[in-house]
Amino acid sequence: MAELTLTLKLPFYRLNKVKALEFERLTAVNTQIANNLLEFDKKERKKLTSAAFKHIEIGSMWINQTIRNTNAKTKVKHFKRMWLEVNNQGYEVLKAGDLYTLCFSLYRGRKGRIPLEVHSASYSETLDKLIARKAKLGSLKICKSKKGIWYALVSVSMDVPDTMPVESWIGVDRGQNNIAVAALPKGFGKFWKGGRVKGLRRRFQRTRKKLQQAKQLKEVKRLEQRERRIMTHINHVISKELVQFAQDFEMGLQFEELSAIRQTSKQRKKTKSDAANNRDNWAFYQLEKFTRYKAIRAGVPVQSVPAPYTSKSDHRNGVIGKRNGDWFKGFDGYRCNADWNASQNIGQWCGFSCHLSLQSAVAAMVMADSEGAVNDSPQSSEASNRADSSPA
Fold it and tell me: What residue stretches are annotated with the Cas12f1-like TNB domain (predicted)?
């Protein structure tokens, strides 16, 4: 059994102003404690416990966690805010009817219950596992959003089924015209179009430009956060559908490795100036991260494969072709959707940049130990011609 760790972000249900102000006050006290700790020498600081803060009304377990968090931040000179946090011994999750509550002693010797607001069905399932002792509690952090909403961040660890054995893989190609394309091996593909997202990006860019000219910087930040939330929601929806797609056909998911793509891929100034086409604005990694943790819960295997030449190679034989916009054209005139072709290559990858039959005389890739070839990379056209003229 594998173990999965999640953090549930749960708003407090109908939190009154008195409790909200008390959270605010105690957070300020906790921040002051953290800043006072920074005045001690590092060696002395590590020896401190809550006994040194008996005069503080906050519970000892909360202060001990603050000391641990402060010691972990070795390069911080001043804390702007240190949220209240406690380990799993300092609180518990309970249920009364349909309402979930957090029970904890924020003050010394005083316990209280605060109800939680649970929107997601998956959160309810996880909280029920906690109450039934089928999942392990982690830390609890009480924090406030910029909108003034107080949240409980509950860390949960649970056992999940091992990934199911699969014989085939679904390749997932990520891009801008299509946010994601998932293709079955030599079969149809499922497309998640990026046109709506491009329109949103351009609209937000125009609005931000006007606000910047008017020097409304707070409004600019607010719009940036809203744009980020919209993209996060879209990635959540797509990742959920990707995992379901893999479950329906009992296959695994393969992503192309896109780490350091912003450093390795070049963009023109005109492209970077357009928010819809600027690759720096697109959350490729977030989509993969969301898909991975959802796949772990569902028992769907996920792995990454090298990205070079997956968009330029013909999925039928591995020959380098031409890509023009949304279309890929093979050396023999074969045409297909470029993103679908790339997802086929990603799904068929087996040690090279894509899967090869090696039966075609014009194959662009040969065995990894062939003379003149670089491991895991296609040969140049000159080397390919040499392979073509060699006897069978």
Answer: 284-346
